Amino acid sequence: MELETFKSSYGYYNFRMSGGKPTEEMLNYLKTNGYRWSGKNRCWYPATSEAKNVELNEKFAGEFQKRFFAAENKTFGQELFEREQRKTEWRENHGLAEQALDDDV
Domain extents for the chain? Predict the structure, then answer.
């Protein structure tokens, strides 16, 4: 089975699987994380406001691929991980990590 991950016109990651039906575990994982099936577009899309959160959506896309398609799609998960590392480094270099902690207090 192959997984295609693509961004919708709204900027969210959607999933399309080919080469077989998703397993029950995959279906449950998608559903519990706020995704729904679109028969018209033949893809899984984020349906809840939490799933539509851009950062959470990116994180979930990487986790989903890592969990179910790790051998096939390592690069996408690695790309998301590296992007998060770059964001963290940039915040630390610009003193924003400490500022965010001070705002919470």
Answer: 2-104
